[in-house]
Design brief:
The chain has about 375 residues and is of the alpha/beta class. The strands form three sheets. A seven-stranded mixed sheet has the order 2-8-7-6-5-3-4, with helices on both faces. A four-stranded antiparallel sheet has the order 9-10-13-12. It has a two-stranded parallel ribbon with strand order 1-11. Helix 12 packs parallel to helix 14. The longest helix is centred in the last third of the chain and has 22 residues. The site of 4'-deoxy-4'-aminopyridoxal-5'-phosphate has 13 residues, from helix 4.
């Protein structure tokens, strides 16, 4: 029998590939982005309570209401935006599903979606499956800044969506207030939807603040903002996240959500709702990861890697051109197989596979693991 692949150019994600290689060669895994520590014990206790309290049946399609209510409170407090828990928030199976669902809901055949490269890897295939076309704005190392006049020139009558990501994976950069204001001006009086991937909302350093689309009422009117509990509560494997958007957009998202997921894991939602009543955890996350970033930067000082200091996310980019001139995919493999530290090459996040000699380390790791990795990195 013959089939025609809908994603013929898709390969296994670099994250899976590098984690498998790390396991195979017993390397320390600073590649795929996940913590090597557990979620807060109080949250784990609440999960157990939810199980004991029989929270095993379908949650409402949009998510457990108590969870949506506490998210709305958090959004009001953090970003000054009132969002209606009944109509403007949907709980999803991680940010990935929220992104896929939003793209599926709005992108028709031949619509154009502007993405910024290096781009997190799940945007492009979702656009392709929807029949749309990715139009790429390339951000250049080392600053990865956006020239908004150039971006504006890329907009065509077919542009249906612009996907932004701040704090940005894989570069560790952030968008500033001026970026959001310029974007807001550019899309004013158009029918362009903004998909804003903000899964690292709490991981912003050096006195900077996270600029959510939720802070800009004009932008929010045309935006879907995407979040993930995996990053905030050290539980990437639970795959629970949410999206927020004005009712007319959320209605369309829910139409798709109900036919591909319907509703998300119920007991975890109940536990998260109870846990979020205490804001301490997410308010202290910034400090927690700042300490890790600085610890890792200190370690890197005694190596030949040159960090491009991360101001957001739990990723640190490093230039390795003082060490090797082989391409980054080969270098990342060599790092894993020969030197025992897994990392992620950056060229895979660019369509043109440019060769900047950059790799990404994840510093969401215990000091012990970071130290052990540091000992190996010093020898390279
Ligand atoms: N967007 C970005 C930028 C990410 O880094 C990730 C995963 N780390 C996701 C989306 C997906 O999040 P989730 O695991 O909640 O699906
Ligand atoms: N977002 C994680 C990262 O950037 C990986 C998630 C995944 O493996 N799909 O490393």
């Amino acid at each position: 029998m013959q089939i025609t692949s809908k994603l013929s150019s898709s390969q296994t994600t670099i994250f899976t590939e590098m984690s498998a290689l790390a396991t195979q060669h017993n390397a320390l895994n600073l590649g795929q982005g996940f913590p090597d520590y557990d979620p807060p014990s109080a949250l784990l206790d609440l999960v157990k309570d939810a199980i004991d309290n029989h929270k095993h049946q379908y949650a409402p399609m949009a998510g457990v209401l108590a969870l949506r209510e506490i998210i709305a409170q958090k959004v009001l407090h953090a970003y000054g935006q009132y969002v209606n828990p009944s109509t403007e928030i949907t709980i999803t199976a991680g940010a990935t599903q929220a992104i896929f669902t939003a793209i599926t809901a709005f992108i028709h055949a031949d619509d154009e979606v502007i993405i910024f490269e290096p781009a997190y890897d799940c945007y492009r295939p979702a656009i392709q499956l929807a029949g749309g076309k990715s139009v790429v704005y390339t951000m250049e190392a080392p600053d990865f800044e956006i020239n908004w006049a150039l971006l504006a020139a890329m907009i065509s009558p077919k542009t249906k969506m612009i996907i932004i990501n701040t704090p940005h994976n894989p570069t560790g950069t952030i968008l500033k207030s001026d970026d959001l204001l310029q974007l807001s001006r550019i899309v004013k009086d158009t029918n362009i939807i903004i998909l804003s991937d903000e899964v690292y909302e709490h991981l912003v350093y050096d006195g900077q603040s996270h600029e959510s689309v939720l802070k800009y009422p004009e932008l929010y009117q045309r935006s879907i903002a995407i979040f993930s509990f995996g990053k905030t509560y050290h539980c990437t494997g639970w795959k629970v996240g949410y999206c927020i958007g004005p009712e007319y957009l959320m209605n369309e998202i829910r139409k798709v959500h109900q036919w591909n997921v319907f509703s998300v894991n119920s007991f975890v939602q109940h536990a998260l709702a109870a846990f979020m009543t205490d804001a301490t955890q997410y308010l202290s996350l910034n400090q927690f990861y700042l300490q890790k970033r600085d610890f890792f930067l200190d370690i890197l000082q005694s190596t030949r890697f040159r960090p491009l200091k991360s101001v957001g996310t739990f990723f640190q980019l490093c230039d390795y051109s003082d060490i090797s001139d082989i391409d980054d995919v080969a270098f990342a493999k060599e790092m894993t197989v020969k030197h025992g530290v897994a990392c992620i090459p950056i060229s895979v996040f660019y369509t043109d596979h440019r060769q900047d000699k950059l790799i990404r380390f994840c510093f969401a790791k215990t000091d012990g693991l970071l130290n052990a990795a540091g000992e190996k990195l010093k020898l390279i």
